[in-house]
Amino acid sequence: MKIIHISAECYPVAKVGGLADVVGALPKYQNALGMESSVVMPFYDNKFTKEHTFKSIYKAQVKLGKETHEFNVLKLKKNTLEFDVFFIDIKSLLFKNYVYSFDDTDRFLAFQIATLDWMLTLKGKPNIFHCHDHHTGLIPFMLQESFKYKNLNKIPVITTIHNAQYQGWFTYDKLHLIPEFDIENTGLLDWGGSINPLAAAIKCAWRVTTVSPSYMEELKLEANGLQDLLKHESAKCVGILNGIDVDVWNPETDHYVVENFSKKNLQIGKKKNKNWLCETFNLDKTKPLFAFIGRLVGEKGSDLLPEVFSTILKEKECSILLLGSGSKDVENELKELKEAYKGNYDAFIGYDEKLSHIIYSGADFLLMPSRVEPCGLNQMYSLRYGTIPIVRSIGGLKDTVIDIDTKNGFGICHNEVTVVEIEHAIKRAVTLYSDQDKFKKIRKYIMKIDHSWDASALEYIKLYKSIN
Ligand code: ADP
Ligand code: GLC
User: CB within 8 A of 210, min separation 6: which ones?
Assistant: First the structure.
C-alpha cells in the first residue's frame, strides 16, 4: 500500500513541535510493516536543506489565482532516512527560514495545489493521502470538488488533527485562489462566515483522526468553534494515540546526551546528566530537578509558571530548569526570576534539540501543566528517559500518565490548571523524591513502558485498509 503523508513539518528536516516528530516517525514504522509510506513537505531555507544535496524529479508551474510560480519536486540525492521525502520547492513562496508566519495562507495553498498537480502526473498513484493539520486541510476538499483533480478523487484521504486550536481561517477575498469547483459547494469550505481549512477537512476527508482518544472526546465538547461539526461527523472520527520513535529517543544510544544509560544503570547515568545540567546552569544538584520543555503558549499553561516558580523556589526545596520560547511576556517574566533564584533556577529561552535530550535524561521530574494537550510527546520521552512526568490530566496526558496514588501509577497528575494545583503537584513530587526507594523504583518502572509507534502504526494501517 502506497501512503503519502502531506505535512508542513517532518523531523529531522523541519521541526517546530510534535507534528514533526510524528511525521518523521510514523512513515518509518509503517514501512517496517510492509507499507510504502513517504512524506511530501515544503522545501524550506533551513539547516537541513543547506547541509544536504537534492535532485529535481519534476518541474512545473503552479497557479495561485492570477499568479504563476515555478516549482520543482526535489528528492534527497542520498537518503539516510528510512522513508522517502519529496520536497515541494516553490522558491518565491516556500523557501523561507521559517515554517509558519504571517503569510501562511498563500504559501500553504500553493504547497497543496503543487502537491496535487504533481500527483496527477504520477503513474503509480497512491492508495492513501494522509494529511496533517490545517496546512493541508484543503486537500480533502480539492480532491473532492476541484474539477482539475477529478482523476484523484477516488483515492481515500485522511486528515489527522494534531491541534484543533489552529484552523487556518482566511477570508473570502482569497476564494479565487482555490482551483475551480462548483460554486454551489462553497459551503463545504465555510465555518462561521470564513474559509476554514480545518473545518473543510473534517467535512471532506474520508476519515478524521486525532492524536489521542481522550482528545477526540474533548473536541466534541470544545474545539475552538468546531465542536458541533465534530459531533456531527463523529461516525468517521477516531482517536489514535501517537507513539514515539524509540530509535531516535533511546537513552542507551542517544548521541546528544552526556552519558548514555539503560534500565540497568539509570541511577548513575541520570546522575551524570543531572550533574552536567546543574553545573552548566548553576543549579543545586542535591535537590530534585524539575524541568519544563516546550512552547510558551497558553495551551501549555506556561503563563502560570513564573508565579508557580517564584513561590516554590522561596522554599529552596528544588531546582528548576526551563527550556522554551514563545510569548514575549512569559519569556521576560521567566528571565526576571533568574537573579532572585540564582543557584536554584535557570531558563534557556530558545529552541535547542540537544539540550532537550539532556534535560529528558538528567531531570528528575518534567512539568506539563497543559490547558490543552492533543497528545503530548514530552511525557513519553520523559518516561523513556526515567524522568517522572507531572501532568494535568487532559487529552493525551490523561491517556498516558497514571497518578502514583492509583493502582500501577507512576506519575503525578492534577485536574485543574491553577497556580495552587501546580504547586501542590510539585510538593507531592518533592515528597516522593524524599522517599528515595520508591522514587528509584518508579524511575526504573517507567523506563519499561512501551510507547513505540509499533501499535499505533498498525492501527493507522487498519484504518487505511477499511476505506480502500
Ligand atoms: P507541541 O507539538 O504541542 O509543541 P509535543 O509534546 O507534541 O508538543 O512536542 C513537542 C516537541 O518539541 C518535543 O519533541 C519537544 O522536545 C520539542 N520542543 C519543544 N520546545 C522545545 C525547545 N525549546 N527546544 C527543543 N525542543 C523543544
Ligand atoms: C500538536 C499537539 C501535541 C501533539 C503533537 C503531535 O502539536 O499540540 O499535543 O503531541 O501535535 O501530534
Answer: 160, 161, 162, 164, 216, 219, 237, 238, 239, 240, 374
Domains of the chain plus CATH, in order, are 2-243+453-467 (3.40.50.2000), 266-446 (3.40.50.2000)
23 lines ligand 2 (CB under 6 A): no
> Which three cell numbers, joined as nine digits, stand for 54?
537534492
Per-residue pLDDT reduced to its tens digit, 105-142 = 999 999 999 999 999 999 999 999 999 999 999 999 99
| The dihedral formed by the CA atoms of 379, 380, 383 and 389, expressed in degrees to the nearest 10 | 10
Q: Give the nearest ligand 1 atom to 294 CA.
A: 20
pLDDT interval class at 232 (50, 70, 90): very high
Q: Is the CB of 211 under 6 A from ligand 2?
A: yes
Closest CA to 381 of 285, 254, 283: 254
The answer to whether the CB of 319 falls within 8 A of the CB of 344 is yes
φ, ψ of residue 206 in degrees (nearest 5)? -75, -35
Residues 6+ apart with CB under 8 A from 162: 18, 19, 22, 132, 133, 210, 211, 374, 375
Residue from 106, 131, 180, 121 nearest 151 by CA: 121
pTM over 0.90: yes
Of 10, 21, 162, 393, the one to substitute when testing ligand 2's pocket (max ligand atoms within 8 A of C-beta) is: 162
Residue 69, φ and ψ in degrees, nearest 5:
-120, 135
Which of 19, 159, 219, 382 most suits a substitution to test ligand 2, by most atoms within 8 Å of the C-beta? 19
